[in-house]
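Field: COMPLEX_INPUT
Field: COMPONENT_COUNT = two
Field: RESIDUE_TOTAL = 758
Field: MODE = joint
Values follow.
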Amino acid sequence: MKPKVLVAMSGGVDSSVAAAVLLEAGYHVEGVTMKLWGGVSDTGCCSVSDVEDARWVADQIGVEHHVFNFGDEFEHNVVNPYIHDHLAVRTPNPCVECNRHIKFDRLMQRADALGFNVVATGHHARIVNTSKGWRLTRGADDRKDQSYVLHMLKESVLQRLLFPVGDMTKTEVRNYAETRGLLTAAKPDSQGVCFITKESGRKSFLGDHIPLRPGRVVDTSGATVGAVESIEMVAVGQRRKLGIPGGSPRLYVLDVDPNTTTVLVGDQDELNCSTTPLDDWSWVDEPVTGLLEVQTTAHGIPGLAAIDLDGTSVRWNKPHRAVAPGQSVVGYVDDIVVGGGTAGRPTTVGRYPHP
Amino acid sequence: MSDTTSIYLDHAASAPLLPGIAELWAATAIKHHANPTGSHLAARHARKALDSARFQVAETLGTTPDEIVFTSGGSEANNAAIQGTLRSCNPERVPATTAADHNAVLNPVRLSEGVIVGVDSRGIVDFEDLTNKVRCHKQDIALVSVIAVNNEVGTITPLPKVANIVRKFAPKALLHTDAVQAVNWIDTTTAAADYDLISVAAHKIGGPVGIGALVVRDGIELEPLIIGGGQQRGRRAGTPDVASAVAFAAAIKETVDQRTESIERTTKLRDLIFDSLTERLGDRVIVSATGTGGGDNSPYNEYAKDDRSHIAAGIANVCIEGVQNEALIFLLDTAGIQASAASSCSSGAQSPSHVLAAMGIPDETARGSLRLSLGSATTSSEVERAVDVIVDSVKHLDHYNGG
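Field: COMPLEX_OUTPUT
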């Protein structure tokens, strides 16, 4: 009997091609679109029109299509923590949480219950069989690589997972879709956070859930240099929308103190740091003692660093731009994910001048 | 879609065409292609066919032909009743309905900031709440709309009792009933005798999708939803669909003619579902419309367990605790059994049921709701097979945290 694979189809081109590739490879394929958010998202995910796109592509290639409503789980595991992180002035990564709790936990559990041997998604990443077992590695397309947001996947999950477009570049994916006339061939990539609409934006979304607090912007000498309407909207490394008059030297957010509602800014040198604290870090195998590549944003360029043996901080080989607390930190050796965690808040107690 | 191996238990969503209806529809569409509002011979013949359909529908509903307005279906009929009433009366007046009514009633009522009356744990309108709300609402009530047979749980509303309360405490209000799920299970000619407006739809009773009717009693003023060429006495513009009207009339006549027999047979099948699921799955089964189940410490047992006299013969809704209905329905589908969880959102995902919520069933339990809706052709072996598959699937899902 053909292995049964459930393909998570978002209605985008990558997962459309993932389904088609597996079908051509001889799997028994069925598609599923997860309904995750009841709102009127127009960011390219979860809306009724995306469900329709997925359904139409499934019809085109001739596979069954289902819709699962994981709205409650999504709200509980992704949306609420997202809001809570902003309240704590952290910069969350909801895609990571969605992958962790929804796509590769809840969906896999459901797939298991319904008799599917394997789950597939349209992520740009690869799963390779190493001497130590199945490991996650970067996708073929450097610019589209999504291994960063998948870093937490355990081997028990990787064993039952397929990333059919991980070996393809985005151009190859689009060409594949175009050659086969898939309806989503030219559909734009999704942007931003799927549960926040472009029109009203993050600020209005957060404002509906938590009080937004205005803050003072001070430089490292303690002088007030600007003001923000809401400290919850400020991220470490940000340079704009800080109420700093034009013509001033370039200043970046170094830290945000929710207790005093103060945003600390400094120049490029001050933004660079030698260490980044980690809130939680786990190694895939035994700890790597030497230098490894460490990536701190979804498509950012990794830096060389060592991770403390106890996993409490990243020691950068060269000064590294400060990492926004809450962001994922992922370690690679030879493009294979060897560990991951979350950036913590640097201890700045006492560093804040309080004029 | 159906084949020999599939068992269709989703009649309340849409029923298969009764025997002969498809042929009748096609023959009528071919024969009466002319516009029935025209004046030539072909038009007059089409007109005659339409009139005779109107007579037939009127007869089965206990009304007169001039009181029948053909619509595109139940949702349009409900909207026409509510919005039409509001547009033709003082704008200060508001509509009222129950929290367990269909969204095609609830949403127009909400849109007009109307009154929502509660229901009890069986889904029956809370008469005290109804009395208080129609009597004491700060704004005048323009219309009270109640669902005759609940589409999700099958609860039959005591229509005459609602009518008595409304007539007594809000004598100026119109009475509307959404009888879309009712014609096959209750005698609306008596139950809804005192109602000014009645909505029905063809596809729930073996007629085609895309046609329904609103009964508008003589003398009731209603602004039309759709304006245009003044068809149907100006109450609903648009070229009347003769073939669908004829097919609808034949289906409703057949349904009403067979009703007593069908109720008797189907009630037994429905009870078989309730009894065997409860017996085989135990306390985790809640028979939604009886408000009972869930064992000795259950919060649901306010009413008599074996009282099912208020449930329509063809609708069996249960909540099975510890199971996700999305997964259960998937497994049933795989085994060829087509059922539903009663409410689906437009994307096709299962969405939380507002009816079960109104009945006080917690979200967690409602996620295990399953509706099997039966039709005139449903057999006992189909029902027995469905029960077997449900029991097996539930036990399977128990190994997967409910699915």
